[in-house]
What we know:
The chain is an alpha+beta fold.
Amino acid sequence: MFNSFISRGSLATAFLVAGLANGHAQEPPPKDVSGRWQVTRDLRDGGQEVSTLDFKQSGSDVSGTFTNPHGEAADIKGGKVVDASLTFSFLYANRHLDVAGQILNDNKIDLTITSQGMSETFHATAERKEASSASSQPLNPLPFLPVRMTRKPLTADEKLSVYVHRTFGPPALILPAFGAGLAMLNPPSHYPREWKDGPQAFGRNYGNIVATVTARETASTLASLVLHEDPRYAPSGSTNVLYRVFHALSYTVVDRSDSGRRTLAVSNFAGAAAGGFVGMAYLPNGFNDTVHAQQRVAMQFATLAVHNLAAEFQPQWGPIVRKLRIPKLLPEWWVPLEPQHP
C-alpha cells in the first residue's frame, strides 16, 4: 500500500511539475514598448505640453530618455514592463518623477506621473511614433520662429531643407505681401512717389522684403554650413522671466555649434549684414547709402531678437494659438514635413 501511495504521489507530482512547466512555457513575453512615443499632457490653462519618450527594451527591462518640450533630455531609470504595466522614473526640472503606465494597446499608454516629496499627480497619454531616424517632424507652422532644437545636430542636407522652406516656401512668398501693404500705409518720410502709391509701389516694397529675407537667409545658411553653426534656437529651460529674456537676446550674439558648444553667432552677423546692405543696389536715392544700410542691419538684429523671444516664450503663448486652431487652418503645403533627428 505504501508503495502504491508513493507511486500515486509521484505521479501527481509529475503532473503538477508538468503543469507548472507548461504554464511557464505558455507565459506571454512582456509587451514591447521600444521606440519613440509622443507624450501629451493637458495643462490647467487649457493648452497642452508635448514631450517625447525614447524607449529601449531588453526583456522586461526598459531604459531610454525623456525629452521635454525644450529639447532637454533626461535618462530613464528603473524601467520595467510587467504584463500590461510600465513603470520608470526620471529627473525633470530638479524633481524626481515616478511614472506608472497602463499599456492599452501597441500604440497607446496611459501615464500617471507622481512627483516625489510633493502631492502632485499628473496624467498624460503616450502614443507611439516612428522610431526610425527617417521619421519626419513638421517645421514650426509659424514661419517667423526659429526651428526647434533637438538632441542631434542637423546634417548639411537638413540645413539646406530648412533654408529652402524659409526662403522659397509659401510663407516666404505670401507674408511679404502683408509687409508691403504696411510699408505703404506708413512709408518713410521723403520717400519718392513711385515707392508710396499704386501697384508699382506695392511691387517695389514687396520685392524689397523678399530680397531682404533671401539675402539674410542665404548668408546665414552659408555661414552655418561653413562654420558648423546650428541654425536652431535652444530655449533656456529656466522659469525665471528675466533670465529667459536675457538668454533670448544674447542668443542673437552667441548661439550653439553643431556639437552643442556655445559659439559666436557669425551666421546671425552675416545674415543681418546681407539683409541690411542688399537694399543699396535698388532702393531710391537717399536710402541706398551706408548710413541707412547700417540702420537696416540693426533692424535685422532686432528682428532676430524678437524671433528668439517669441520662441523662448512659446510654451506660454502657444496654447492660445492652438485654441484658435491656427495651425490646423493652415494647408499642408504651408509647412512641409522635413526629416529631422530626434
